[in-house]
Amino acid sequence: MTPGNVGRFRNSPSLRYCILLYSTPGRINNTINRYNLLGRSFQVTETVLAALTQDGLPPELVESLRAINDRKYFSKREFLGDITRLDPAPASRSERKLILRHSRLGFLGLERLVPNRTVREWVEALIFALIIASIVRTFLFAPFKIPSGSMIPTISIGDHIFATMFSYGVPVPFTDIKLFSQEVRRGDIIIFPYPRDPSVDYIKRVIAREDETVAVRNGKVLINGNVLNESYAYFDESIMALYRRQGRNLPDFGPVRVPPGHLFVMGDNRLNSSDSRVWGFVSESAVKGKGQIVYWSHDPREGWMGGYHLSRIGTLLQ
């Protein structure tokens, strides 16, 4: 067994680039404003009146707005209700929209820190996008790129996958605690911190659970003395041929007993995977998520002009 391809994986940049290209500040702010997602507040000030005058709001409307000058509104409905009762009141939708746009206070009160409205909208959109992305990535779905071949043929080098982060319970940030926790099952493809360096995430398949005895004999996995049926296990023929030429059997392992609260994991590429045979068990409480589907595949070893495996898009990880 060679430990070169260790099965670690990284956050995938491809999806983030697509989101950034689609989610312009204007598009994000339109969504925020339409549904008042941030509980926006509104206030008419002298600066707002000057901006409305510059943008062509009729002078009589600007003067009527002085009746609510410096009053702060925490509800869009309340603010619109008051300006429609002014005399004169804005008659057209475009006039009301213009007043709303200039009177709207920024997210987290950024007016003082970022006076320029255009720049402030960029900052607000970025903050909002980061908050949403963090929530989705922590509690729902996370994209990852696979840089190694330890899970071949199930997962190829350069595959971009989605993992569900709620499969084994809802994670509590900055802890190993999960609400509504679910049992990790044999055969699941899991994401977890590498036991020797928790800053690096690994992806492997669960072979045995707590209190089970694991052994490997001539490539066959035995659980409590019984051969495990593994249709996903892959043995590189070139390495197998080398063992045959040298008159050697495949390396044996164990038996070992999985301690309580832990898992024994292996890569599907059995002769080219560093896994529990090398660095030990994985704490079940540390499991982050479950690999589900390939959404993009590009082998970086073949450069930008090649290595695109479109047929792998949509492949379910089983």
Write a brief caption for the model:
The chain has 318 residues and is α+β, with helices and mostly antiparallel strands.
Care to describe what's here?
The chain is of the alpha+beta class and about 325 residues long. The chain folds into 2 domains: about 10-15 and about 140-310, Umud Fragment, subunit A (Ribbon), CATH 2.10.109; about 15-135, no CATH class. The chain is about 30% helix and about 25% strand. The protein is built from 9 helices and 16 strands. The chain has helices spanning about 15-20, 25-35, 45-55, 60-65, 75-85, 95-105, 115-140, 235-245, 275-280, and strands at about 10, 40-45, 70-75, 140-145, 160-165, 170, 180, 190-195, 195-210, 215, 220-225, 225, 255, 260-265, 280-285, 290-295. It has a 6-stranded antiparallel barrel. The chain has a 4-stranded antiparallel sheet with strand order 12-11-10-13, with no helix packed on it. Strand 11 and strand 12 form a beta hairpin. Helix 2 (about 25-35) packs across helix 7 (about 115-140). The two termini are about 25 Å apart. Residues about 1-5, about 15-25 and about 30-40 have low confidence and may be disordered.
